[in-house]
Amino acid sequence: QSALTQPASVSGSPGQSITISCTGTSSDVGTFNLVSWYQQHPGKAPKLMIYEGTKRPSGVSDRFSGSKSGNTASLTISGLQAEDEADYYCCSFAGGRVFGGGTKLTVL
Amino acid sequence: QVQLQESGPGLVKASETLSLTCTVSGGSIGSYYWNWIRQPAGKGLEWIGRIYSSGNTNYNPSLKSRVTMSVDTSKNHFSLKVDSMTAADMAVYYCARDGGEKPGAFDVWGQGTMVTVSS
């Protein structure tokens, strides 16, 4: 199981939209519709933001959306807010589980 | 509302075994997968493995030779053992639930417990 590939960092201004990519292989992201996304603020446990690639848990803002194309999943955050500044991780089913390396989102 | 709480020693000597327990409150341990995930300081998340309430396990191949998980349904808790600890195993260790209504996703997390390895 190799880690999924995410950009180390992305940034955007308040109100803008950003997209974080998560690239895997045909053995994980490309085959299974079981990609999830997590938000982690410093010193806190991760929080589930997206599951099954596109679904939002109750209570998660509809500014967060997920998609997938081939071996790459994506998380889009629209209408950026200061509170969105955090680390974001993707995770895919691959027999077990494999995480991406994480992306630090900076809200300028 | 289901809550998870990790417990165990925060300091382990190199070459010894780490033992952690995650207690499930507010719900039953049945019918879910229960996972351990770790995060070294300043680094990303690493999935260690999971155990079903029946006792079936899946481990990360990179850690499989040193990891053992168990579940005690009567106490509503599950446990992790990692043998032959080294400095590379220093991390915050989280327990998390997956399965149920959100397949493949970790929808409930513990607060995490920091584990330090001393030489």
What does this molecule look like?
The complex is a heterodimer of chains A (108) and B (119). Chain A is mainly β and 108 residues long. In chain A, 0% of the residues lie in helices and 46% in strands. In chain A, the strands form 2 sheets. In chain A, strands 1, 3, 4, 7, 8 and 9 form a 6-stranded mixed β-sheet that branches. Chain A has a 3-stranded antiparallel β-sheet with strand order 2-6-5, with no helix packed on it. In chain A, strand 7 and strand 8 form a beta hairpin. In chain B, strands 2, 4, 5, 6, 9, 10 and 11 form a 7-stranded mixed β-sheet that branches. In chain B, strands 1-3-8-7 form a 4-stranded antiparallel β-sheet, with no helix packed on it. The model of chain B has no long low-confidence stretch (mean pLDDT 96). Chains A and B meet through strand 3, strand 7 and strand 8 of A and strand 5 and strand 10 of B.
What profile does the largest beta sheet of chain B have? 7 strands, mixed
Determine the oligomeric state from the structure: heterodimer
Chain-averaged pLDDT of chain A: 96
Low-pLDDT segments of chain A: none
Count every beta strand of chain B, where a strand is a DSSP E run of 2 or more residues.
Answer: 11
C-alpha-based Rg of chain A, rounded: 13 Å
Number of helical stretches of at least 4 residues of chain B: 0
- Assign the structural class of chain A, choosing from mainly alpha, mainly beta, alpha/beta, alpha+beta, or little secondary structure: mainly beta
Q: How large is the share of residues in beta strands of chain B?
A: over 45%
* Tertiary shape of chain B: globular
Biggest interface and which pair forms it? A-B, 26 and 23 residues
